[in-house]
Amino acid sequence: MMKKNKILFLFCISFTCLFGQSDSLTLTDFINYIKAHHPLLLKYQLTKKNAEQELLGNKGQLDPALTSAYNSKSFDGKEYFNLWESNLKIPTWFGPDFKIGYEANSGSFLNLEDFTPNSGLVAAGISVPIGQNMIIDERRNTIKQARIFVKMADAEQQKLINKFILSAIKDYWEWYFEFNKVQRISNAYNFAKERYAFSVSRISFGDMAPIDSVEASIQMQNMNVSYNNAQIEYYNATMQLNTYLWKDNTTPLELDNKTVPKSYSPQTFRTINDTLQKSIDWAQKNNPEILKSQLKIDQVKVEQLFSKNKLLPKINVDYAFLSSGTNAQQGNLFNPSNFKLSGNLYMPLLLRKERGKLNQVRIKLLEANFDFQQTIRVVDNDIKASLNECNIAWNQIQLQKNIVVNSVRLRNAEKANFDNGESSLFLINTREQTLLSNEIKYFEFIAKYQKSQAILFNNIGFLGKMWGL
Predict the structure, then answer these.
(1) N or C: which end of the chain has fewer CB within 10 A?
(2) Which of 390, 365, 374, 376 is nearest to 457 (CA)?
(3) Which SS3 state, helix, strand or coil, does residue 124 take?
(4) Maximum pairwise Cα distance, the chain
(5) Residue 20 pLDDT more than 50?
């Protein structure tokens, strides 16, 4: 009995095909072609690269810097002064800056503090922040923020790719549905035309009442209207699918008229084997929206550390060993008794600006944590809803398959009765209409299942990675 049902089902699904041996386009081939040629995917892949370049620019604050300055004055034949100073500054990640400098000054009216030996003066020292800027400073704050931004850009890039692939998959299955719908309506339209011709023939022989031709004509015209509407919807779905097809990232392509979607059997569909909890656990670690929300918290924490640092007094100490150019050339680099020392202190007494900024950052951190908890909740619920929709759609496919089989039986039985003169056009048309409706619903459930599965993987955050993106 089951074997007979299967034969009936295959008969009703594939019993005519207007495209014969036409080329079929699978979802895999469609997505692979998009991956290779679509300009939007290339654009999305630039999101992270742009953030990486911003990080590179911010790291430039730690680049060694060479400075040199020359100042001279001469008046009435007198050489007042010649001042020349060159320095190499080497910033470090952990706070202090190392400095190496050379200074050579001459002239009749030099300030005493500008006096240098004839061979010049070499200095090598360090500038150390004590208190504020010791643990974190502006440049380290900027670089840490930029590093987190790269990760956020990566998550945003994955989100955009997931959304794009989801849209492509939805449009593919809409195209699949519209194609199969137009095929089923075309079959029904052909049957209606044949039945009308058959009715006219029987009326001419006096086997049917003339009014029956009106019934057959109305059914044929209704099917013609439905077929025309279905063709328009299939054409529109094809045009939508064409928006994803490009050649060499610059030339748009269109599907050939003979290209049709591949015929799928539900037995070949990928089923959902992962448990709900496994999907949620994976999403909480990898979903782009959750990652972005977590990284936002990390950014605010860095900002909070920087704001706390502003409450400390700003104390900078600079120390440098000194040596004449001649001694440096002879290898007698530095004498401990020759040095240069400076220091400065800055400390606002009320710290209202700093405390206000810190409190604002703390509020921002609370907001980021609230957003994070809400994002997790939304993602979890979206996964639950889409998984439930997948399971229901899968069950609907199985139920609708049996409904189609039974509808074929009824239609065939009614057709046999009609051919034997034991039924009416109204009954056979009703059976045909019911079968057509059930066939269309079957393909609608297939498309719905595939769309809901893609939505599920998108909600998990895995859709792009499924396709190697």
Answers:
(1) N
(2) 390
(3) strand
(4) 135
(5) no
Work out the angle between the directed axes of helices 138-204 and 211-242 (0-180°, nearest 10): 160
The structure tokens listed for 88 are: 């190499």
Mapped onto helix, strand or coil, the DSSP state of residue 343 is strand
The one-letter amino acid at 258? K
d(CA 104, CA 333): 17
CA distance 227 to 233: 10
- In angstroms, the CA 323 to CA 329 distance is 10
Residue 237, pLDDT > 60, answer: yes
Residue 464's nearest CA partner among 108, 41, 77 is 41
Cβ–Cβ < 8 Å for 141, 303: yes
User: Which of 95, 99, 103, 89 has its CA nearest to residue 124?
Assistant: 99
Contact call for residues 48 and 150 (beta carbons, < 8 A): yes
Report in angstroms the alpha-carbon separations of 287 from 49, 81, 221, 375. Answer: 20, 67, 52, 10
Nearest one of 171, 156, 155, 150 to 38, comparing CA atoms: 171
**pLDDT one-digit tens code per residue, 395-421:** 999 999 999 999 999 999 988 887 777
Cα gap 32→318, rounded to integer Å: 61
**What is the enclosing helix (H) or strand (E) of 372?**
helix 352-419
What's the helix, strand, coil split of the chain in %, to 5? 65, 15, 20
Q: pLDDT class for 392, splitting at 50, 70, 90?
A: very high
Distance, in Å, from the CA atom of 310 to the CA atom of 84, rounded to the nearest integer, reads 36
> DSSP strand E in 248-379: where?
251-252, 260-261, 314-324, 339-346
What H or E segment, with its residue span, contains residue 110? none
In order of start, what are the domains of the chain with their CATH numbers?
2-37+141-300+364-466 (1.20.1600.10), 64-92+96-132+314-350 (no CATH)
CB atoms within 10 A of CB 282: 15
